[in-house]
Design brief:
The protein is mostly helical. The protein contains 17 helices and two strands. It has a two-stranded parallel sheet. It is globular. The relative contact order is 0.12.
Amino acid sequence: LQIIIVVLFALFVRYDPKTAQRSPNSVEDGDGQIKHTYPMFQDVHVMIFLGFGFLMTFLKKYGLSAVSLNLICSALAIEVFTLVYGFFHVHCENPNVAYGSSECDSIWPYIDVNLVTMISADFATAAVLISFGVVLGVTSPLQLIVMTVIETTLFVVNEIIGKDFIGAVDAGDTIFVHVFGAYFGLAVVRVLYNPEHAKSDKEGSSYSSDLFSLVGTIFLWMFWPSFNGGGAATGDAQQRAVINTYYSLCSCVMAAFAFSALVTPSKKFSTEHLQNATLAGGVAVGTCADMMLTPGGALAIGSLAGVLSVCGFQYIQPFLLKNLKIHDSCGVNNLHGMPGLLGGLISVLVAGIASPASYDQFSGGMDAGNKSLTEIFPALANGGTAPGQALSQFLAILATLAMALVGGLITGLIMQAVGKMEGMEGEDFYNDDWNIDELEAKEELVGAEELKGLMDDWKNGKFGGNPGEQDNKGYEVES
């Protein structure tokens, strides 16, 4: 597969002549992308490889596999997206001429790559990693490679349908990334359902695995404003996206902590809720992040998302497993699915009430082409209406759900066939030993070293050699 990708890159992919090759405006335009896009790209890149990777380390016997498979799926998704998206947007050899026009002298299609390509590839990768979270621990690397290739391709097709044909707007990709990735993964895992998934004693977490997972949560939480703002128009729209996400996340944390203590039987915080539900505000606010949501509206959305996510973990996830045989390893439906649908529906409302008074209160005297309302909703500049834009948002949700569910079911069937060839079952689920070489020997070595250390302490008289005494850490020593 990688050989095919290398050949395709060699044949079709080139640096963007307008920003990455010397041309009349390349220095200015390329420098502009570095200053405006690269900081956001860095943040999103950290989210993809560190945030998602460590978030999935909560399984006590699957941490190495979670981070490793996160890496390979991400790298592959970036490559596949570059090719698939590029083939839908090919360029003429002359960058100033549209491919296929009478002025284009060359027939060879070129895929131009720049920083915008890179951050867009990371957004597509996020959808794949969301689906990966659903099937975490119950799929082999080969199955994940199959899923990554198919899902990335369908992601591009769905986004083109939603944005170019339906006319929906989605600055933070709540609809096209979170909803798509969540329900694609849920459809896949429904096909792959095995009763052993929920019965394995390796599925649980430990103190250290939960701690590593919370590190991933913090990375995601910190950089989520860049994820939602990365796709927004530069200037006031992008600043609104960052501000709205910032406050929605804060409000979500407060609601998630409070509601977690309310619904858990012990009236304490659930680590599972803290690792996931605290991020739901970033998901829910994404679609309307650059809209005139108001800071108060952002806080309200964050609180709703936090409560919804906690309820999902506490009540919806057990229901899906028991009644629909959907085993969701990471609780993706609770973090990405339901908050994503909430955010999509809120965008229907916010788009439906959009008006020049709310978006262009202080833009008097500016050209019509520079108005904020038509920048956020381009269809309104071409005769569209706010109710029409609201309908576009709703249709994009329906189209995304259809593409995700149908595509996920078909992909699940293919993965199921691949899985039968590999024979992964029983003790192999949630087990690093299935993926990592010589893991058992390494675990035994650690145990031997610990035993040797205890024996040396005993010989040196650290424990005093008397049964019933305690060492300096307060642990009772037995003979």
